[in-house]
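Query structure, 311 C-alpha cells:
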C-alpha cells in the first residue's frame, strides 16, 4: 500500500515510517522540518519538504497518490499555543483542512489522525479518571487542545460528506527514543537529556501533576491497527495509568544515578493537573493494548540516548 505521513521526520512519524516500510508498504513523507530534522528519514522513503498549509500539497498527493494518510504534522506544544494561538490554529486547523482536501481529491482509503488525548479532554476531576472517549469536556484548558479537537471534527465532517474513511487516535503522553528533549513538550525526553548532560531539570509545579505515559512503539502499533480497521471511529491510545512528574524524575534517576535532587518551578499555563485515558475501546475494537511498561520504556529511551544504564 502507498502510505503518506505528514510530520514523518518527527518523533512518532519516523517510527511509523520504519514500521510501514518493514511491513512492505511504500512510504512518502511530507514535513516542513519546523521542529525536526532529516536524521530519521528512512532511505526507502520519498521525502517532500513542504509545509502542510502549502498549496503544493495537492501536487504531491496527485503525484504520489497515497492510499493511506497518517496525519501527524502539528504545532504540538501547549505553552507555545498559549502564546501563539494564531499560529497554532493555522497549522493545526488550516493545515488539517489542506491535507483532508488533498486526500479527498485522490480517493484516500484510510485517513489516520494523530490527535491529543490529555489536551483534548482538559482538566477533569480525579474521580472521573481514566477518561472514556465520550466523556463530556466541561471547558478546554489550552489553545492546542482546542485546535486538535477541531481537527477531529473536520475529519468527521469530511468522512460524512465525502465518504473519506478515517480513524482518530487520541494519544496520552507519548515517550521513547527519538523524542526531542530541547522543546517544551515531552518530559521524559527533556529530563533524560538534561540529566545525561549533567544538568538538573526543572519540574513545573509541585511534581504531583500526573500523566498517562504510553511508549512510542505501542503508539506505532495502534496506527497500524487503525490503518487496517474497517470502520470510522475514534480511540484513546493509552496505558490507563497515572505517573507523576516526581515519579518520572525518580525513574530516570534510578537508572542514571546522578545524585540529583529535583528543582521546582512555577506551574505552566494550560497544563491539566491530572490525565489518564481509558483504553478499553481500543482494546476491544482495534485489538490493541500497550505492551511496554513505563520502567522498560524509560530504560529503552535511556539506552537510545547512549547512557550507561546502571539500574
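Result returned for the query:
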Amino acid at each position: 500500500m502507498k502510505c503518506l505521513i505528514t510530520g514523518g521526520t518527527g518523533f512518532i512519524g519516523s517510527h511509523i515510517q520504519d514500521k510501514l516500510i518493514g511491513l512492505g508498504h511504500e512510504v512518502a513523507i511530507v514535513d516542513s522540518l519546523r521542529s525536526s530534522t532529516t536524521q530519521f528519514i528512512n532511505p526507502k522513503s520519498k521525502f517532500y519538504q513542504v509545509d502542510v498549509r502549502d498549496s503544493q500539497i495537492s501536487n504531491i498527493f496527485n503525484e504520489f497518490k497515497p492510499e493511506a494518510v497518517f496525519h501527524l504534522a502539528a504545532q504540538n506544544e501547549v505553552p507555545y499555543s498559549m502564546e501563539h494561538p494564531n499560529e497554532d490554529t493555522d497549522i493545526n486547523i488550516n493545515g488539517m483542512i489542506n491535507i483532508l482536501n488533498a486526500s479527498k481529491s485522490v480517493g484516500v482509503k484510510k485517513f489516520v489522525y494523530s490527535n491529543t488525548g490529555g489536551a483534548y479532554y482538559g482538566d477533569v476531576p480525579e474521580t472521573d479518571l481514566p477518561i472514556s472517549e465520550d466523556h463530556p469536556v466541561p471547558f478546554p484548558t489550552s489553545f492546542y487542545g482546542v485546535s486538535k479537537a477541531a481537527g477531529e471534527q473536520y475529519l468527521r465532517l469530511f468522512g460524512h460528506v465525502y465518504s473519506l474513511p478515517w480513524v482518530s487516535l487520541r494519544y496520552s503522553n507519548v515517550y521513547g527514543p527519538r523524542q526531542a528533549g530541547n522543546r517544551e513538550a515531552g518530559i521524559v525526553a527533556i529530563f533524560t537529556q538534561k540529566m545525561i548532560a549533567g544538568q538538573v531539570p526543572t519540574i513545573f509545579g509541585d511534581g504531583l501533576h500526573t500523566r498517562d505515559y504510553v511508549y512510542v512503539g505501542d503508539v506505532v502499533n495502534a496506527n497500524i491497527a487503525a490503518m487496517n480497521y474497517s470502520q470510522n471511529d475514534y480511540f484513546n491510545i493509552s496505558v490507563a495509568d497515572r505517573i507523576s512528574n516526581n515519579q518520572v524524575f525518580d525513574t530516570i534517576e534510578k537508572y542514571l544515578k546522578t545524585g540529583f535532587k529535583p528543582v521546582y518551578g512555577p506551574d505552566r499555563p494550560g497544563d491539566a493537573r491530572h490525565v489518564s485515558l481509558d483504553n478499553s475501546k481500543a482494546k476491544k475494537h482495534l485489538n490493541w493494548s500497550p505492551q511496554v511498561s513505563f520502567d522498560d520504556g524509560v530504560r529503552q529511551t535511556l539506552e537510545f540516548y547512549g547512557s550507561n544504564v546502571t539500574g
